[in-house]
């Protein structure tokens, strides 16, 4: 703004548009006293200039040499003696400065002084060298009063001491009343009347108390910005005048009369060490203490008004404008021809210079220090931001009244925006977002006083290794969120601030510094303080994290530094769903609908994942994308990683140290989920992620990458992971069974498919169809059983007969799958893990159970594993379909001999051992194929040692076992005692079905001694001595022993002899009770009978007799036949002649 003398010729005085009232200060020795030639000239320069001017009586007849003194005037003498130091009485300027409150005389004197040509001549004499240096002032015309106006404008550049003191003294006098400011009355006359700021005509009010008028205008200017009331509008001319005056008075606390008198006591109390009239600092000190409760309300209001003016025009702050002048010019923050209302705003200056800092440009330390002060000022007092007052008035009154200072009101509004105290309008939210960008607390947490005070203890303990003011302090605090080191108040303040930082990627200083190149290259972003409708700030981060996880084949990846920062931000956002702006925006309705009660840390995202299928489309896509991202880098789940830290350090530290996760860490956690070091929180988190993965195969990163092409080709339109696994597994199985030359499923997919299948067996909830079918059964029978370690599945297997039909069917199908591939039997693999390593290290997964069964009775077999093997054997013997080896070996025998049983069978219901019992009988008849016979022999041998392996025997003889063989059944290890007990008590058995089963056992034992463990044990030595050369099977060794028993030359062991005689009696009884049902049974009874030789002899004699009789009958028949033929020939020959005659 040019000196007003250039605009209005009517006022020859020092025309400066200064919005300033009386800048009275305590009397001091006048600098003018030391100015050569100046004192005398100025002593007479204040004489009346016209007839209407009131003049001192001693001055009316004299000029400059009359020696007239203000201190000698009667009207002033008392005030001078009372208020002014004695050594100043002789100097009119010193007295004038002292007596700023004198009435009309002083005002007229000052007015005459400012219009006297001598005023300018003294300035030319005192400031000769300065005028020569300042070209603009040297070019001012002589005698029009413009020179002093120019010097005042450039007083910040005056280095000459005498000139500076002179101009300072003149400024204090001239600006003691707004009416002395050239043009100010003309520019603001209408506004003063409109705002009712008091009189502008002398005589209506104390002329030298009208600093209040200027203060009133300033408040009107502030009120206009805050209320947007059309009734309160300051004219543009007056607005410029007010701000220009405030600007020019900013270098000296005393020049703002209203501020000076309002804060004089506080200044002396808090700022006693400052110089009496130092530039800027004198008014900054009360500002620094403006939040102290002791500070007078009047001073606080005055300071707040000045701060609000600074917010509208940064030049009102002398220190800020001076410190940042060169930087503003360097980075083109005050471009010419821009509207002053824009370029002069403090927010514009801050954002422009902050943009330079964020781009890595050099900004002077003095300027940065000033910026820090004013950013902190804006964060502490919301009233300094007109947009906040205008947009958030209702929210402040309703939610945040009475929280004015120390940034508490702003944080209260932030809390409201986060949704913790109610709703907030979009305008208010935008105003807060803009303020956060202007103050940029992400660059230095100390700017946010509320956060700084709340988190001081946490910073001192958890973040003490980071330099104070470093932007990484906020990241450190976020890393310790929800930990023991975090305090509640700090947690709230931190989340309130992070809510806004997370909505503009530029507000995270480290992220912006590391990623601005990538954002410009990949996301087409603009400068730090520029926005784009096509790429709003909230969308930039989404763009960055999409590129962060691209593969090398996909190209256009982020730099390593930027990727690390993106991962850091994702880790932080995972702690609170409100820190993800896109997620909160798209899922607001679903959060209220499904997750209103999920208020604990991290529960909201888990809730959304649990209800993924129920979410609206946009929300489902966002949650799905985030979950897919987590599957690739589970370290994004900061809370889960914190809970799993011990297990990671112990078992997964190698994969955790990899910069690129690719799903390895989660796979490791799943594999070690049941280690003793695993804590409950980690186990729950890992299980939850497994359950979420089942909703979409894309949520399993390694599975997705290995099988995505196979899924598109073989399982299109299938989304759920469990369905994809079943689809691919079925394809693999079919290709294997059909001996396909080339598998349709790729090798890498088959390997990962195996991993997924094994993981799914650990928890019934990972198999949704089974879980849904058995949910009610679980509640009824397995309510207190944990889900992990397949314990629920094992519980259902043990009570299979009590399950509902649908659940029973699903469990049967599960068992069928497990028996075909024992590696999928989680419990078996877990319990027998060490035994598998010992006995079956090279066994194929499908033969694992067979290998374990073969080593079951080893002395070093683990008892728990042995018990588990027995359980699986019991299961297999309930249905031949659960024994793949038997099923394959007997595939021809089963339909041949047991078709009637198959006709009654259902696909998903056990046959309770009926087919196996049928095959056992055919084994006794020696009618089975060799492969089938071998398998049945093994089953008979195993069930002979443990009655539980014979489901038909256990089902039909349960009462007899309880009553007759309770002691044997209670034995810890079964060695055939129960079967022997039933055989011995055969005569006591009343139930026909049970008796039949025991008789079948006796019948089976005739076929092979190995199926009779008691007899085999008793006769082991005799078999070795007498029957070693005879191969086992088909009753051969049993026949050998029977012959040895009849041979008196052979001496058998007493126990063997006794057991053989017992068996003979049992077989005889069995023959009586259960006669042969067919020729095969009869032949078997004969062959196993003690009188076998006698019976065979009789049969042989009988056959011979029959042969002889047949032979004799055959000769007689032959003779008769020949005689008959001869007779027939004779008859024919006799009849031939007669036949020929007739012809």
From TrEMBL:
Main location: Golgi
Signal peptide positions (record): 1-29
GO molecular function, a single term: fibroblast growth factor binding
Bilayer topology annotation: Single-pass type I membrane protein
Start and end residues of each stretch annotated as Disordered: 46-67
Subcellular location: Golgi outpost; Membrane
One of the record's GO cellular component terms: Golgi membrane
Keyword terms, alphabetized: Glycoprotein, Membrane, Repeat, Sialic acid, Signal, Transmembrane, Transmembrane helix
Cys-rich GLG repeats: 362-421, 423-485, 557-616, 677-736, 744-804, 860-927, 989-1049
Keyword Nucleotide-binding found: no
Pfam families hit by this protein: Cys_rich_FGFR
InterPro entries associated with the record: Cys-rich_GLG1_repeat, Cys-rich_GLG1_repeat_euk, GLG1
Listed transmembrane segments: 1094-1117
PROSITE patterns hit by this protein: GLG1_C_RICH (PS51289)
Biased composition (Low complexity): 46-59
Name of this protein: Golgi apparatus protein 1
Protein species of origin: Catharus ustulatus (Russet-backed thrush)
């Amino acid at each position: 703004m040019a000196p007003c003398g250039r605009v209005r010729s009517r006022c020859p005085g020092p025309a400066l548009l200064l919005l300033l009232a009386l800048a009275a200060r305590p009397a001091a020795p006048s600098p003018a006293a030391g100015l050569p030639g100046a004192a005398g000239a100025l002593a007479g320069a204040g004489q009346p200039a016209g007839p209407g001017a009131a003049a001192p009586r001693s001055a009316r007849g004299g000029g400059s040499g009359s020696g007239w003194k203000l201190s000698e005037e009667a009207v002033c003498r008392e005030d001078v003696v009372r208020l002014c130091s004695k050594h100043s009485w002789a100097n009119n300027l010193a007295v004038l400065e002292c007596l700023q409150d004198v009435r009309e005389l002083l005002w007229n004197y000052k007015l005459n002084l400012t219009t006297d040509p001598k005023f300018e001549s003294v300035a030319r004499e005192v400031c000769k060298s300065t005028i020569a240096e300042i070209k603009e002032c040297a070019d001012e015309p002589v005698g029009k009063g413009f020179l002093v106006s120019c010097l005042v404008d450039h007083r910040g550049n005056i280095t000459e001491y005498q000139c500076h003191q002179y101009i300072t003294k003149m400024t204090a006098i001239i600006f003691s009343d707004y009416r002395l400011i050239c043009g100010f009355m003309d520019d603001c006359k209408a506004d003063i009347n409109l705002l009712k700021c008091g009189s502008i005509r002398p005589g209506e009010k104390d002329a030298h108390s009208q600093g209040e008028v200027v203060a009133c205008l300033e408040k009107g200017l502030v009120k206009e910005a805050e209320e947007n009331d059309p009734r309160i509008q300051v004219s543009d001319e007056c607005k410029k005048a007010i701000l220009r005056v405030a600007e020019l008075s900013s270098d000296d606390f005393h020049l703002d009369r209203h501020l000076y008198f309002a804060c004089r006591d506080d200044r002396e109390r808090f700022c006693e060490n400052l110089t009496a009239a130092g530039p800027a600092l004198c008014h900054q000190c009360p500002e620094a203490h403006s939040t102290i409760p002791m500070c007078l309300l009047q001073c606080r209001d005055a300071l707040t008004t000045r701060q609000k003016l600074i917010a509208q025009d940064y030049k009102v702050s002398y220190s800020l404008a001076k410190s940042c002048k060169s930087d503003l010019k360097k980075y083109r923050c005050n471009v010419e021809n821009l509207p002053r209302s824009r370029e002069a705003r403090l927010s514009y200056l801050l954002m422009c210079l902050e943009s330079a800092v964020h781009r890595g440009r050099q900004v002077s330390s003095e300027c940065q220090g000033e910026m820090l002060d004013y950013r902190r000022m804006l964060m502490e007092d919301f009233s300094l931001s007109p947009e906040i007052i205008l947009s958030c008035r209702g929210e402040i009154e309703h939610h945040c009244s009475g929280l004015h200072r120390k940034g508490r009101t702003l944080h209260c509004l932030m809390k409201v925006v986060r949704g913790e105290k109610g709703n907030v309008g979009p305008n208010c939210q935008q105003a807060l977002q803009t303020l956060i960008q202007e103050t940029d607390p992400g660059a230095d947490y100390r700017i946010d006083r509320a956060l700084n005070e709340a988190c001081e203890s946490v910073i001192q303990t958890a973040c003490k290794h980071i330099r104070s003011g470093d932007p990484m302090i906020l990241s450190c605090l976020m890393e310790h969120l929800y930990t023991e080191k975090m305090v509640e108040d700090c947690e709230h303040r931190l989340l309130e601030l992070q809510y806004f930082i997370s909505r503009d990627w530029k507000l995270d200083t480290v992220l912006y510094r590391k990623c601005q190149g990538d954002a410009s290259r990949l996301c087409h972003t603009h400068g730090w303080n520029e926005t784009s409708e096509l790429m709003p700030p909230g969308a930039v981060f989404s763009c960055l994290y999409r590129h962060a996880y691209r593969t090398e084949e996909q190209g256009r990846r982020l730099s390593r530094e930027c990727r690390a920062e993106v991962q850091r931000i994702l880790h932080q956002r995972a702690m609170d769903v409100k820190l993800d702006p896109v997620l909160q925006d798209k899922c607001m309705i679903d959060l209220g609908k499904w997750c209103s009660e999920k208020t604990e840390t991290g529960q909201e995202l888990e809730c959304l994942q649990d209800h993924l299928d129920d979410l609206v489309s946009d929300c489902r896509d966002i949650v799905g994308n985030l979950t897919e991202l987590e599957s690739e880098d589970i370290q994004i789940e900061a809370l889960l990683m914190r809970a799993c830290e011990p297990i990671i350090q112990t078992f997964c530290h190698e994969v955790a140290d990899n910069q690129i996760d690719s799903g390895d860490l989660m796979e490791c956690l799943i594999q070690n989920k049941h280690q003793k070091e695993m804590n409950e929180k980690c186990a729950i988190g890992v299980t939850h992620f497994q359950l979420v993965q089942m909703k979409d195969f894309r949520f399993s990163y390694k599975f997705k990458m290995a099988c995505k092409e196979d899924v598109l080709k073989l399982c299109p339109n299938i989304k759920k992971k469990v369905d994809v696994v079943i689809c691919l597994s079925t394809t693999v199985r079919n290709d294997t069974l059909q001996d396909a030359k080339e598998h349709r499923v790729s090798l890498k997919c088959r390997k990962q498919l195996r991993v997924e299948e094994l993981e799914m067996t650990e928890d019934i909830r990972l198999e949704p169809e089974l879980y849904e079918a058995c949910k009610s059964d679980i509640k009824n029978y397995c309510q207190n059983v944990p889900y992990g370690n397949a314990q629920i599945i094992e519980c259902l297997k043990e009570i299979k007969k009590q399950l509902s039909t649908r659940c029973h069917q699903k469990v049967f199908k599960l068992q069928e799958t497990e028996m075909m591939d024992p590696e999928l039997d989680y419990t078996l693999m877990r319990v027998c893990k060490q035994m598998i390593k010992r006995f079956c290290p090279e066994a194929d997964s499908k033969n694992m159970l067979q290998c374990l069964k073969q080593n079951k009775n080893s002395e070093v077999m683990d008892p728990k594993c042995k018990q588990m093997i027995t359980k699986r054997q019991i299961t297999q013997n309930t249905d031949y379909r659960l024994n793949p080896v038997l099923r394959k070996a007997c595939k021809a025998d089963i339909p041949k001999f047991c078709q009637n049983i198959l006709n009654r069978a259902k696909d998903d219901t056990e046959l309770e051992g009926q087919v196996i019992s049928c095959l056992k009988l055919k084994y006794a008849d020696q009618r089975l194929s060799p492969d089938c016979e071998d398998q049945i022999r093994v089953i008979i041998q195993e069930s002979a040692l443990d009655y539980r392996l014979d489901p038909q025997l256990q089902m039909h003889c349960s009462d007899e076992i309880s009553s007759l063989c309770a002691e044997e059944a209670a034995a810890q290890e079964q060695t055939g005692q129960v079967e022997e007990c039933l055989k011995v008590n055969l005569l006591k058995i009343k139930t026909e079905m049970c008796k039949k089963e025991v008789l079948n056992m006796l019948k089976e034992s005739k076929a092979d001694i190995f199926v009779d463990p008691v007899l085999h044990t008793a006769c082991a030595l005799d078999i070795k001595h007498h029957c070693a050369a005879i191969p086992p099977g088909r009753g051969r060794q049993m026949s050998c022993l029977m012959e040895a028993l009849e041979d008196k030359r052979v001496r058998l062991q007493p126990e063997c002899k006794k057991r053989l005689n017992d068996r003979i009696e049992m077989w005889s009884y069995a023959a009586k009770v259960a006669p042969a049902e067919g020729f095969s049974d009869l032949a078997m009874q004969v062959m196993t009978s003690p009188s076998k030789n006698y019976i065979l002899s009789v049969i042989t004699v009988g056959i011979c007799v029959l042969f002889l009789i047949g032979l004799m009958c055959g000769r007689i028949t032959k003779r008769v036949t020949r005689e008959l033929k001869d007779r027939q020939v004779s008859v024919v020959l006799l009849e031939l002649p007669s036949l020929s005659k007739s012809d």
